[in-house]
Specification:
The complex is a heterodimer of chains A (about 110) and B (about 450). Chain A contains three helices and six strands, in the order βαββααβββ. Chain A has helices at about 10-15, 35-45, 50-55, and strands at about 10, 15-20, 25-35, 65-70, 75-80, 105-110. Chain A has a four-stranded antiparallel beta sheet. A two-stranded antiparallel sheet of chain A has the order 1-6. Chain B has about 450 residues and is an alpha+beta fold. Helices cover about 30% and strands about 30% of the residues of chain B. A ten-stranded mixed beta sheet of chain B has the order 12-13-9-8-1-2-3-7-4-19, with helices on both faces. In chain B, helix 3 (about 60-75) packs across helix 4, helix 8 packs antiparallel against helix 9 (about 195-205) and helix 12 (about 325-340) packs across helix 14 (about 380-400). The longest helix of chain B is centred in the N-terminal third of the chain and has 18 residues, at about 60-75. Chain B is globular, with a radius of gyration of 26 Å. Classes of the chains: A alpha+beta (about 110), B alpha+beta (about 450). The interface between A and B is large, with 37 and 41 residues.
């Protein structure tokens, strides 16, 4: 099939928004928003966005992280335990607003033409 | 349409004290809402404000915002509800806001009945819950020890709308609440007028951040009109539009789960929520439902974690940058030797350009030509922190290593003195749910005081 020959693209080039923030001091939540249904489906299917793979990037075991598809907004939510509570000694990011960058180069396979 | 008549609620701000935008607020007043609300706090800025008992916002700007809201609400003769007074909603935060409110009333000749609601939970009550195993950590938070409770200057719990309803029923015109659920600010008047909790809570959850739910997102006043079947969202800035996508997306914001929102007395189920465009600017929302659960209290507290001293420096030397981890390990060993402190426990460095923000699995290739270095010491006493950071600064500056080119110094300091004493460091000590005996206890934990101004 033709689409199998297409190159994967990094998440940063596919998503409309990639953002991270605390959801309370003990959780970090990352939201990925997509422009088209095809980008959204491709991201849902991407190996690098499965719970195990994302957890590995953040140094967590997969049971401390959830990947929640939210089709209403063509979005994927990733919620994980914070290794250090927000603002405690050793934390690098009190609001958790800059923890998205570890995901930006995840490969998203080319979806069907929208 | 059967059921309760429509109610109009205006959210003036999601973070009162950073500057309420006047044009949208005044446009909102012309819609004659049945209440005006604003949230003033959150746990987002971290544990320090709760621990110190201080506001995060600038006093002058806070006063400006409160003046605008008080005058607006009094001009319409509708209730004004402020949630989580003074950033963290403990006694000193609430007292600071009340002092400003009294001052504004006197200065502007405003006369109203003021209700203030405290949200401080007595330590002995929390200790009793801890010993009885009635304190459950939220998420990955560790279990609470007795020390966590004893060392925390302030312990607050989030109130729901019950005490706010009681205050308005007693004739209050202005309600200033300590720590409160963001949603309670708006569900209060909606539920007093007979509206169901599910839709009211969903509406409240969206408008408590003002126009952040719009496209483009902003900080303008937001108007919601709630009826028996759903609610309409209307941004008071004509250039920010509530769209089905922007509003649905807001369900994700700072929420661990987009389908379920946990509140003190139950759960909001958003799995059947529907968002429809009314026109290019307004959205109609319906479909949320509510499940009652056993009432509980969400506690928050912060405890001291020692004293913090820091210095900031930069380096442009490629050999320093290439072996920065090694240099840092050696400097720490020297400091530990000299100061007799456990420097490994007290000292921490963040290398901006390499790993200051994110724990990257590998360094960048090529390495950056400059890096910023923040060295932080958190020690049990202020003197220890200062002493360790001072010695560290000098040994980092002059640390020698094989192949060193720049033998006069490894670091560039942007100002002098380079060592900065930050003061006490804080940590969240409680982020727990506490079981309560019954509704009567719940009521007693949030006492209301009335004043005629």
């Amino acid at each position: 099939m033709a689409e199998n020959l297409k190159k994967p693209r990094p998440l940063a080039d596919v998503a409309r928004i990639v953002r991270s923030k605390n959801a309370g001091p003990g959780l970090l939540t990352i939201d990925l928003f997509f422009n088209t249904d095809s980008d959204y489906s491709a991201a849902i299917a991407a190996e690098g966005l499965q719970a195990e793979a994302v957890a590995a990037r953040y140094g967590l075991s997969a049971n401390r992280l959830r990947v929640i598809p939210y089709p209403l907004a063509r979005a994927i939510k990733i919620t994980m335990d914070r290794l250090i509570t927000a603002g405690s000694p050793g934390d690098n990011d009190v609001y958790g607003a800059q923890q998205h960058a570890l995901l930006l180069d995840v490969d998203i396979p080319e979806g069907d033409t929208p | 349409m059967s059921g309760p008549s429509p109610v109009k609620l205006m959210s003036a701000s999601g973070q009162l004290g950073y500057g309420v935008l006047k044009p949208a607020f005044e446009r909102g007043l012309r819609h004659e809402p049945h209440m005006i609300g604003a949230d003033m706090g959150s746990v987002d800025p971290g544990p320090a404000y709760l621990g110190m008992g201080k506001m995060a916002t600038d006093p002058g700007m806070t006063r400006r915002d409160l003046t605008m809201l008080l005058e607006g609400a009094r001009s319409l003769g509708v209730p004004l509800i402020i949630g989580t007074a003074g950033t963290a909603g403990a006694a000193p935060h609430l007292d600071a806001v009340l002092a400003i409110v009294r001052d504004i009333a006197a200065e502007r000749g405003l006369s109203f009945k003021l209700a203030s609601i405290r949200a401080d939970i007595p330590k002995d009550r929390v200790l009793r819950a801890q010993r009885a195993g009635e304190l459950s950590p939220l998420g990955a938070f560790p279990a609470a020890s007795e020390a966590d409770i004893q060392e925390s200057p302030y312990i607050v719990a989030q109130m729901d709308e019950a005490p706010m309803v009681a205050a308005l029923e007693a004739g209050a015109d202005v309600v200033i609440a300590g720590r409160a659920c963001d949603t309670a600010i708006y569900t209060t008047v909606a539920m007093m007028r007979g509206h169901g909790r599910g839709l009211a809570t969903h509406m409240a959850k969206i408008i408590e951040c003002a126009s952040l739910c719009c496209d483009p997102g902003g900080r303008d006043s937001m108007l919601a009109t709630l009826d028996a079947e759903g609610f309409t969202l209307d941004c008071m800035n004509p250039d920010r539009h509530a769209t089905p996508t922007s509003v649905a997306a807001h369900a994700l914001y700072e929420q661990g789960d987009p389908f379920t929102v946990r509140e003190p007395s139950g759960e909001l189920d958003l799995s059947k929520a529907v968002y429809t465009a009314l026109d290019e600017h307004r959205v109609r929302v319906s479909g949320a439902s509510w499940r009652d659960t056993t009432p509980s209290l969400k506690l928050e507290a912060a405890a001291p974690a020692g004293f913090r001293s820091v210095f900031f420096a930069g380096t442009s030397d490629p050999r320093v940058i290439a072996r920065i981890d090694q240099i840092w390990t050696e400097v720490r060993a020297v400091v530990a030797d000299l100061t007799g402190e456990d420097a490994n426990a007290f000292l921490r460095a963040r290398f901006y350009g390499l790993n200051g923000v994110v724990n990257w699995p590998a360094p960048p290739d090529p390495l950056p030509r400059e890096i910023g270095i923040l060295v932080e010491c958190i020690a049990p006493t202020r003197e220890q922190a200062k002493s360790v950071i001072t010695v560290t600064k000098q040994y980092f500056l002059h640390h020698g290593f094989p192949g060193r080119l720049s033998t006069a110094g490894n670091l560039a300091f942007p100002f002098t003195p380079p060592e900065v004493e930050v003061g006490p460091a804080w940590r969240f000590s409680l982020h727990h749910v506490m079981q309560v005996a019954d509704a009567a206890e719940l009521q007693a934990l949030f006492p209301i005081t009335y004043e005629d101004l």
